[in-house]
Amino acid sequence: MMNAIWLFLFCGGILAAVVTDRTALIFPSVLAGASDAVELCIGLAAFLGIWCGMLRLAECSGLMIKVSRLVAPLLRPLFPDLPKNHRAWAPMIMNVSSNLLGLGNAATPFGIKAMKALDEDNKEKGTATKEMITFLALNTSAVSLFPGMILGFRAEAGSIEPTAIIIPSLLASLCGLTASLLTAKILAKWGGKR
């Protein structure tokens, strides 16, 4: 679907240039955009390398374990029907902890493992359980205490104060988390009655 949207926008831009007799601007604009994209990617690669290194140090120093211990009691009330010794707990806790630290890339494999573990007990294959829906809502809201990639984008784009979005980002993601969890709970109750 996204490919179709991008193709539509690209073709629409070319058509607009032809209609307004500005075809001479097409190729210089395309080359300038490509050049800017490469420059942005190189800057982000440097930022991502530094950030991943710092987070690897946090992992090796035990910070991830400490964050996981803080997260575990917060998750238990969201999954009251999931046994305490279920194999999905560890990847779910690591997923949420990774998201909290701004490690979206590291959170993804844990999220996949958690979903697979939750699906193993699923009696109706191909249908999401209440726990799967709740975890998906929790994972997609991805509350982050330090949105590293967005800060990298802002710094690379020349923002004077790239960290100014930390508090608004946290508040917005908490609102999104609340809305997604409420929706998941409402839909789980509604779906259970059917």
Give the arrangement of secondary structure elements.
Elements: H1 2-19, H2 26-61, H3 63-75, H4 89-100, H5 104-120, H6 130-141, H7 148-156, H8 166-193
Give your account of this protein's structure.
The protein is an all-alpha fold and about 190 residues long. The chain has one domain (about 30-194). About 75% of the residues lie in helices and about 0% in strands. The protein is built from 8 helices and no strands. It has helices at about 1-20, 25-60, 65-75, 90-100, 105-120, 130-140, 150-155, 165-194. Helix 4 (about 90-100) packs antiparallel against helix 5. The two termini are about 30 Å apart. The model has no long low-confidence stretch (mean pLDDT about 80).
What distinguishing features does this structure have?
8 helices; 194 residues; mainly alpha; globular
Find the count of extended strands (DSSP E, 2+ residues): 0
First CA to last CA: what distance? Answer: 32 Å
- The amount of beta strand, in percent, is under 5%
Runs with pLDDT <50, length 5+? Answer: none
The whole-angstrom Rg is: 22 Å
Strand/helix succession: HHHHHHHH
* Biggest beta sheet attributes: none
Regarding quaternary structure, what we see is single chain
Structural class given helices, strands, pairing? mainly alpha
Number of helices: 8
* Count of spatially separate domains: 1
| Averaged pLDDT | 82
Shape: globular
User: What percent of residues adopt helix (DSSP H or I)?
Assistant: over 70%
